[in-house]
Design goal:
Two copies of one chain form a homodimer. Chain A is α/β, with parallel strands linked by helices and about 400 residues long. Chain A has 19 helices and eight strands. In chain A, α13 crosses α14. Chains A and B meet through α11 and α18 of A and α11 and α18 of B.
Chain lengths: ~400, ~400
Amino acid sequence: MHVTGIVVEYNPMHNGHLYHVEQSRKTTGADAVVAVMSGHFLQRGEPALVNKWARAKMALHQGVDLVLELPAAYATQSATLFAFGSVAVLDSLGIVDSLCFGSESGDIDSLQALSTIIVEEPPLLQSFIQEELQKGQSYPRATGVALTRYLELDPQFDSTAIGQPNNMLGLEYLTALRKLNSSIQPHTIQRIVAGYNEENITHAKIASATAIRKATMQSGLDATETLLPEYSYKLLQEEFREGRGPVNWECFKQPLFTLLHRATPAELAGYVGVDEGLESRLLEASLRTETVHDLISAVKTKRYTWTKIQRALTAILLGLTREAQAGLHLEQGPDYIRVLGFTDQGRKLLRAASEKARRPILTKLPREKSPMLELDIRASRIYAGGYSRTQPGAALWDISKPVLMV
Amino acid sequence: MHVTGIVVEYNPMHNGHLYHVEQSRKTTGADAVVAVMSGHFLQRGEPALVNKWARAKMALHQGVDLVLELPAAYATQSATLFAFGSVAVLDSLGIVDSLCFGSESGDIDSLQALSTIIVEEPPLLQSFIQEELQKGQSYPRATGVALTRYLELDPQFDSTAIGQPNNMLGLEYLTALRKLNSSIQPHTIQRIVAGYNEENITHAKIASATAIRKATMQSGLDATETLLPEYSYKLLQEEFREGRGPVNWECFKQPLFTLLHRATPAELAGYVGVDEGLESRLLEASLRTETVHDLISAVKTKRYTWTKIQRALTAILLGLTREAQAGLHLEQGPDYIRVLGFTDQGRKLLRAASEKARRPILTKLPREKSPMLELDIRASRIYAGGYSRTQPGAALWDISKPVLMV
């Protein structure tokens, strides 16, 4: 049985995602698709529109056979950590043969060649990086600029591939596979129509999740009906009707501002992602803004991007300090494989994986929980506070909800 | 000019309070009344129904000449610290001649006699306290029981005075005056009709603030019209209409539960008032309750009273740790005299006090703020998150609102 892995957020799962699952199956000739999915807080530092169980349901009803949760410790991080955590989950399952990701490039060989350069860092590239660092650039930025300069010297490379978000994330997957010395074979599918972050709906059937969320918040769910597969649409309707969404940053306004008001600058600077003086900007802005949106707008600069600020706010909300993170040993990869749900085919995968997995597979939560798992549970509890209607028992859902069987 | 001081919360200011102000003036023959008033969080560990500026306005329009704020560091504490902070503010003003408080007893001489026993702790009383402590009682409880036992031996004392809440608070005022070696003369007025915490409305015109708040929450403000002086009633109407109340614990549900969900037991145990294993009870209860009321109910025992739990929750919400509190040096009394407002008569008081006060009198906030003052500001900011409607600029009200002149 050939198994392919994909890395998803499904916030929410739309027509473009359906195409990706379908293409992943075709391209790799897979018999089954395993998705690693972020939980309640996502890579751009945002709470998910609906909870992880609803999003896992969408996945299982629309082409995915097994949904594994990417631990929160990796989900709201830089592309490097996000990719490493995701690939590590797939790799540790022991039965995934290939990884299939979308990219602007669509050409796995050229991405692999780029990845080799990034990993091997030839001397000329190193000297470019040093030069950029000396100009006062941050390390990731210096690396990016240096890489472009390096690639421009060699006509065999398409230097424009650098900087396109899905290519960059793809390169991170490739790097992660190398780091893990993984046997998983990477594949890429060229993305169609909508750009990763494109905010407006420009195509009748396909729009980015960002555009869909924006339309939902501004005009209601109805405005997105043509952009969502029927199952996703119906499920979102139900979730919203039950008061479990749409969840967004504003749903966490009061706890977030309370946390900012009660923190000293030193305490605030101790959270993951709050660095380079971000703490004083946040504290100052918290006094003269009334919404999370306005807070981020007030803090945003070229150096502090929207995403970077949102990730820092997530760390503050979840109480993830640098000290706590150091204790998670992220460099070792997730210490468990958390199953959110599976189909009949997914059940077979789990059976096969039970002998091959290099981490414990959790279909329910163990009594003894690692700090990494505790963080997931904490994220769910805090997320539950953002529902528009109180959901009795929601603080225990991580423990009480049975794994989804579709 | 004879000046009398009173200690108030005015949550809200009702007919009983009006009577108290009037009687304080009469009993002491005062030309002016100074009130020390709690800010946004009160002695029973609750947020105030409306903010401190509205409550100060009620006071200034209804018989009080000068309203000073009791720092939050004292306001949400045991009767001993609350009384000490309040009396210290009045004492440090340098112009207050008398202190007038309500009590069940109404007899200052017998309260003074009791106070002498409490302060001097005769050997027999000490041995009773030791006996009670050895039975495993907490110190305050052991003292109370021992005192009753001691008083029962001497027919000149009315041992039933012990345990009545206003008598007990009165005794704390008397003890505080002694500790401060204050020249302020204590007076007491016998309370009429409504008991301190009496929850139901039993009299046409006078009801406890507790009963009035309860009626407001259950049946709306209209239900309390006859129990409130016109000014209070109209002001509450306006505050509620503008979305600034009624504020209660449920308005802080999300930040409170978020704080509980993200705290480790050790962190939680570091907050003021979270002791004797309260942290684990709170953490456990936070998982299976959805409201602050239900949380407290779930945690409440004979040892952890409702008030004690509410005070602990306030410390958690405000981020007041034992360590931070130690740095405030509460034993030295408030380090400033914060003026919330004054009448024409109050202005004269301030002029007289400007030469006699033993602490800086603040009619606006200084650039350099002591940690004690920072806590007041923090309390206001967090309180502002509890308004039913966002109040633009509310995080800066402590700085931007001019002192009230009535």
